[in-house]
Amino acid sequence: MDQTAASLSGLPSMDEVWNWHEQLAEMGPRYTGSPSHACFIEWLKEQFSAVPRFQLRTDPLTFHRWLAQDWSLFINQDATVGASGPVPVTYYYPFSGTTGPKGITCKLVDLGMYTPGWSTPALPSRSLS
After folding, report:
1. According to the 3-state scheme, what is the secondary structure of the chain?
2. Dist. CA 88–CA 71, nearest whole Å
3. Cα(27)–Cα(36) distance, integer angstroms
4. Choice among 2-11, 15-24, 52-61, 87-96 with the minimum mean pLDDT
5. CB count, 10 Å around CB of 41?
């Protein structure tokens, strides 16, 4: 067996790696300290332990993060400005902590259009001819 073949011995196939990717996606969000994160760590240990001649060492750190059970946003405004009511929320920040039963009331400020500080340059277009 040549050196290249020997160095690839025991590595997963492309199909196995894709299967791992699908398993990872099924675990859902893996916020630090969450049950999904703990499941992901155990899964990684299993995968690395299966690699021949690979020695896995771990340094466990305990971190418990608050995860929301429910979240919402309600806009309460003067009728001359517009209708009050609930606003769809697509995400919450999981390390923000809990809010009391009365919620938070404050002025909502429109910061305008967001322009990222960086961008990925577009690749030059290629002719298909």
Report:
1. CCHHHHHHCCCCCHHHHHHHHHHHHHCCCCCCCCHHHHHHHHHHHHHHHCCCCCCCCCCCCCCCCCCCCCCCEEECCCCCCCCCEEECCCCCCCCCCCCCCCCCCCCCCCCCCCCCCCCCCCCCCCCCC
2. 10
3. 6
4. 2-11
5. 13
